[in-house]
Automatic annotation (TrEMBL):
Residues 2-98 form the GST N-terminal domain. InterPro entries: Glutathione-S-Trfase_C_sf, Glutathione_S-Trfase_N, GST_UstS-like_C, Thioredoxin-like_sf. Coiled coil: none annotated. This is GST N-terminal domain-containing protein. It comes from Schizophyllum commune (strain H4-8 / FGSC 9210).
Length: 252
C-alpha cells in the first residue's frame, strides 16, 4: 500500500503535540506505512483547505477552525481530520490490523479519558502550554506566541503557575493519574498493563501522547516531569515506557 500521509506540527525535537502524537502511536501500532508532512502553525488552515480536510472546531467569531492531526490515505482517497475520527477510520479501513477501538469499548475509553483529562488537563496544561514556544521552530514560534498571548491577555511567561499554585496543580495531576491507573484491572482483579487489558487501545495512546507532550516540552529535568516520575511509585512512567515501541522516530 502507498504510505499514509500524516500531517503534524514540527518542533526542534520532532513530533511533540499531544494531539498528533496519539496518531503517530496508532499508525505504528497498526504497522501501517506512513510519511510525515510537517506543517508550521501559520500554514495549517491553508494546507487543510488545499487537501480537503474538514475543520474540527468553530472559532468564537463563527468561522471554521482547522487543526492537526490530519491524515491523507492515497489507497482510499480519504482525508480525515480529528484524532478519534482518524482512529475509527483506521480500524474500518484496515480491519486486519490491531484495533484501536475493540468492539464494545468506545464508551469505556471515552469515560476513562473524560475522567483523567477532566482533572489532569486543567491542572497541568498551564505549566506546559506557555513553554511550547521554546521548542518550536522559527516558522511557528512568533505565531504561537502572538495568538496565545492575545487569547490569554498576558505574556506566556506571566501565565506559568508558580509557588503553592504549582504544587497544588502537581498534586491534582497525581490524583487524576492514580484514579486512571486504578482502572487497570481484569475481571479477576489482576492489574493489567493497559486500560483494556494486555493490549493498548486508543485511550492509551491518547494518554501517552499527553505524557510525552509534557516530557518533550519541559524536559526530563523539569520539576513537573520529576513529579510525574514519582507518581504511583513510578507506574505512570512505566506505562509510558511500555508504549515506547509504538512511538517510532519522532523526527521521521
Amino acid at each position: 500500500m502507498a504510505p499514509i500521509i500524516f500531517y503534524s506540527i514540527p518542533s526542534q525535537k520532532g513530533c511533540w503535540s499531544l494531539h498528533t502524537l496519539k496518531i503517530r502511536y496508532a499508525l505504528n501500532y497498526k504497522g501501517l506505512p506512513f510519511r510525515t508532512e510537517w506543517v508550521e502553525y501559520p500554514d495549517i488552515e491553508k494546507k487543510c483547505k488545499e487537501i480537503g480536510a474538514e475543520p474540527t472546531e468553530t472559532k468564537e467569531d463563527g468561522s471554521p477552525l482547522y487543526t492537526l492531526p490530519v491524515i491523507s490515505d492515497p489507497s482510499t482517497g480519504k482525508v480525515i481530520s480529528d484524532g478519534p475520527k482518524i482512529a475509527k477510520y483506521l480500524d474500518e479501513a484496515y480491519p486486519d490490523t490491531p484495533k484501536l477501538y475493540p468492539p464494545g469499548t468506545e464508551a469505556t475509553q471515552k469515560e476513562a479519558m473524560a475522567q483523567l483529562f477532566g482533572k489532569a488537563a486543567p491542572a497541568l496544561r498551564p505549566m506546559v502550554v506557555p513553554c511550547v514556544v521554546h521548542i518550536l521552530g522559527e516558522g511557528s514560534k512568533p505565531y504561537f506566541r502572538a495568538t496565545r498571548e492575545k487569547a490569554l491577555g498576558c505574556t506566556l511567561e506571566e501565565k506559568i503557575p508558580k509557588g503553592e499554585d504549582r504544587k497544588l496543580r502537581l498534586e491534582q495531576g497525581r490524583e487524576a493519574f492514580e484514579a486512571f491507573l486504578a482502572r487497570f484491572k481484569d475481571a479477576s482483579g489482576k492489574e493489567t498493563p493497559f486500560l483494556l487489558g494486555e493490549a493498548p487501545c486508543f485511550a492509551d495512546f491518547s494518554v501517552a501522547g499527553f505524557l510525552q507532550w509534557i516530557r518533550v516540552t519541559l524536559g526530563d529535568e523539569s520539576d513537573v516531569w520529576k513529579a510525574v516520575e514519582s507518581w504511583s511509585d513510578g507506574r505512570v512512567v512505566k506505562y509510558l515506557e511500555d508504549l515506547r515501541k509504538y512511538e517510532g522516530d519522532p523526527r521521521a
